[in-house]
């Protein structure tokens, strides 16, 4: 039942959220509050390699939610977000994940991970790559809303 409610929430966010322009000069707009985005087209835009830990493409930025895709290239140290919950749907790959004091747990293609604002999380080894993830941030998370649990573990995150 909870899975059904979570998926309903995610698809509701998608349905009402298509009024922002996507990056990479793509325009998913079909009206002021709706549209269609082909996620696979955006996955093909993610580089095979990258000098940072993550490369992401913001698809939507709405007042109460954001949608993006990202590819992970390395481990992400434990961190949390003070203002938004996160729902991660794994499109491709498999990795270890840590949430709060649990882990590692292995999640892969077809799995949905989620946590509330303020919940520490990160990922360990990428077991199968590339690791491509569709993310729903509720509310839309500003890129600066990353608070490292141990600031000494912060790596060059986005790269150039």
UniProtKB/TrEMBL annotation:
<dbReference type="GO" id="GO:0016853">
    <property type="term" value="F:isomerase activity"/>
</dbReference>
<dbReference type="Pfam" id="PF07883">
    <property type="entry name" value="Cupin_2"/>
</dbReference>
<dbReference type="InterPro" id="IPR013096">
    <property type="entry name" value="Cupin_2"/>
</dbReference>
<keyword id="KW-0413">Isomerase</keyword>
<protein>
    <submittedName>
        <fullName>Mannose-6-phosphate isomerase, cupin superfamily</fullName>
    </submittedName>
</protein>
<feature type="signal peptide">
    <location>
        <begin position="1"/>
        <end position="22"/>
    </location>
</feature>
<dbReference type="InterPro" id="IPR014710">
    <property type="entry name" value="RmlC-like_jellyroll"/>
</dbReference>
<keyword id="KW-0732">Signal</keyword>
<feature type="domain" description="Cupin type-2">
    <location>
        <begin position="75"/>
        <end position="134"/>
    </location>
</feature>
<dbReference type="InterPro" id="IPR011051">
    <property type="entry name" value="RmlC_Cupin_sf"/>
</dbReference>
């Amino acid at each position: 039942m909870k899975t059904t409610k979570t998926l309903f929430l995610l698809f509701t966010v998608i349905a009402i959220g298509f009024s922002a322009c996507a990056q990479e000069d793509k325009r998913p707009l079909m009206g002021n509050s709706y549209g269609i985005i082909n996620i696979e087209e955006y996955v093909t835009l993610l580089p095979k390699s990258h000098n940072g830990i993550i490369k992401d493409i913001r698809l939507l930025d709405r007042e109460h939610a954001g949608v993006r895709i990202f590819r992970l290239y390395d481990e992400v140290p434990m961190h949390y977000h003070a203002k938004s919950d996160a729902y991660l749907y794994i499109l491709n790959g498999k990795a270890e994940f840590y949430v709060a004091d649990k882990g590692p747990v292995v999640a892969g293609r077809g799995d949905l991970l989620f946590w509330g604002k303020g919940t520490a999380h990160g990922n360990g080894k990428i077991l199968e790559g590339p690791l491509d993830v569709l993310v729903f941030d509720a509310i839309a998370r500003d890129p600066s809303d990353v608070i490292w649990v141990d600031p000494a573990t912060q790596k060059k995150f986005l790269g150039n």
